[in-house]
Amino acid sequence: MSKNKKYVFNSRTLLYEVKKRSRASRVLMPLCMFAVSVVMAFVYFWIYTSVLGWELPKTALLKKKNAEWCSKVEVMNMQLDSYEEALTSLQMRDDGIYRSIFGMNEIPAEVRNAGFGGVNRYAHYDESGSGLLLKDMAVRLDVLTKKTYVQSRSFDEVALLSKRAGDMAMCIPAIPPINPDPSVYRLSSGFGYRKDPMSGRTARHTGVDFAMKPGNPVYATGDGVVESVKFEFFGYGNQVVIDHGFGYKTRYAHLKAVGVVEGMKIKRGECIGQSGNSGKSSGPHLHYEVIYKGNHINPANYYDLSITPEEYAVMVQNTADASKNITLHPSHRRRDNGKS
Prior knowledge:
Blueprint: E1 5-10, E2 15-20, H1 23-51, H2 57-101, H3 109-112, H4 123-128, H5 131-162, H6 165-171, E3 186-189, E4 192-195, E5 202-205, E6 208-211, E7 217-219, E8 224-230, E9 239-245, E10 248-253, E11 255-258, E12 265-266, E13 271-275, E14 285-292, E15 295-297, H7 309-315
Antiparallel strand pairs: 1-2, 3-6, 4-5, 6-14, 7-13, 8-9, 8-12, 9-10, 10-14, 11-13, 14-15
Helix pairs in contact: 2-5
């Protein structure tokens, strides 16, 4: 039977007669059926999404997976908050306790919180359309990783210095710079604000003054290296500055004679010169300063003047008697440059 033929029953002849289908009807019929199918599908989609407010199965599945990943990212961010809080606590203890104990400077905030310069490391997140959530977490991970590295290096430095704790104990200026014999000296001026004996104006006194006759031996108060030796007619006059390491330095000023040179290693209790009256001075005395991390601090916090001269002598017994064995370098043997 041909597909183009159609049999129609004729009620007059009581026979089935062949009725041929036109070419137009053969083409239009499938097209009409296809068009109706498209319209019905569109109407179904419109009713399903707009009228009923439902989501397509694939969209619902993708949204579900996206919600799961967002939840995982949020959990990771909460963990990062916990890690960052713990790291901040370590940083505070590192700067406020560990590095301070060993006289180390704090790590600058710009070093701890330094970003990443140059090419945008996170451009691929923008290009992939993954949103700010993943990008922000990637940035936090990188910053936290760098902070952790900086903190790790800091602890390595502290651990290295902790092995030298015994050296540190000998370097801290912990004894008086002179033998504390009450018959030999008196404290003429303490640390802090006072009336300047020369100008009469109130000024900050950055050390302590031990009034005594010129020629009394002056001792290093801790192990260190002579940083500078100066001979001046004004200011501190003849002076010695010793760098003890661990953030500590000491200054011995208005000396009559100096027995050390720059770069010389010094032991605690070793004689470095003689008290005098050089520079800006209203009378013979030793001006003594303790400097920690660039700031002047009260030297009285670092020595005990109540010890007896005999006890002090025991502490410096490994050095020669200052009154007999002051060895002055020929190029540094100077006379007192006068009183002012």
